[in-house]
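Data deposition worksheet. Section B asks for the primary sequence of the deposited chain exactly as it was used as input, without tags or linkers unless they were present during the calculation. Section C holds the resulting structure in token form. Section D is free text for depositor observations; keep each observation to a single sentence. Incomplete worksheets are returned to the depositor.
Section A, Depositor: J.P.
Section B:
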Amino acid sequence: MTLYISFTISVIFNIIVGCYIIYLLKKFVFISQNISDLFLTTKAFKVFINSMYGMESYHGEPMIQELIERIKEIEEEIEDFRDIFEHTLDEELEEELNAAQEEEE
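Section C:
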């Protein structure tokens, strides 16, 4: 009788733990995708600011230069988090942004 009760408790416990693990994995994927999107958005913004800085009317503007430097700092911080969640990156979009950034340089 105690074996039957122990087995039942064990099965119930394993089901609860399994559901909790699935819940955590869903959260992990959600966070990972959002960090990747944030990184790519920041990178696209950096490319835009760099192209704007290159325009004749804005070239040499100190506020835009400072904005570029601050974006680099933010990008580095996001990159640290992105490295943790690297498995859900959108590689195609990132390659397009890298190509656009290389064209600007």
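Section D:
The chain is about 85% helix and 0% strand.
Residues 2-53 form the longest helix (52 residues).
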